[in-house]
Amino acid sequence: MKTIERNQFYGKVKRIQKGAVNSAISILLKGDQEIVATITNQSVINLGLKSGSDVYALIKASFALLSTDLEQSISSENRLIGKVSSISKGAVNDEIVVEVNGGNKLTSIITSEARKDLNLIVGNDVCAFFNASSVILALD
Q1: Which of 7, 26, 52, 110 to pair with 130, CA 20 to 30 A apart?
Q2: What integer pLDDT is reported at residue 53 of this predicted model?
Q3: Does some domain include residue 47?
Q4: pLDDT tens, residue order, the chain (140 aa)
Q5: CA 100, 58, 6, 109 torsion: positive or negative?
Q6: Which spans in the chain are helix H?
Q7: CB of 102 within 8 A of CB of 24?
Q8: CA dist., res. 127 & res. 68, Å (int)
Q9: Which CATH number characterizes residue 79's domain?
């Protein structure tokens, strides 16, 4: 599978919770971290998803929000905790790479101002948040 998306997480479908229109797909990643993707029921059928299916979860870097408050409550279904492994500073936006459990890396694009406000430096513990509706599922 080729894609331009940097945030590609391989995992296995742990559970499918079907609703009237959409399904919540729980995915177990390396390192025993779990994320949720919300997709249409028709997409579940089209992909042939079932418990145990291998999937890739793709998350756009600009959809990943960061916080240095690891206990922060936010109305986002997905929360991955890790350490800042690199920072690339730009004129307006900065690229923050977070290493999470299992060796997965999540890239977040935030404003330079936000990075300064969070006082982010390499080695900081951070929490990355993203909505289930921001996750795109793909098969190899």
Answers
A1: 52
A2: 97
A3: yes
A4: 677 778 999 999 999 999 999 999 999 998 899 999 999 999 999 999 999 999 999 999 999 999 999 988 888 999 999 999 999 999 999 999 999 988 899 999 999 999 999 999 999 999 999 999 999 999 98
A5: negative
A6: 41-47, 112-118
A7: no
A8: 6
A9: 2.40.50.100
Token pair, residue 48, equals 């042939």
* Residue 129, strand partner residues: 65, 79
The tally of domains found in the chain comes to: 2
The sign of the CA dihedral 98, 9, 6, 60 is negative
Which H, E and C letters describe the chain, residue by residue?
CCCCCCEEEEEEEEEEEECCCEEEEEEEEHHHCEEEEEEEHHHHHHHCCCCCCEEEEEECHHHCEEECCCCCCCCCCEEEEEEEEEEEECCCEEEEEEEEHHHCEEEEEEEHHHHHHHCCCCCCEEEEEECHHHEEEECC
Residue with tokens 């059928």: 45
Tokens linked to 103: 């060796």
Q: Are residues 52 and 103 in the same domain?
A: no
Range of the domain at 123: 61-130
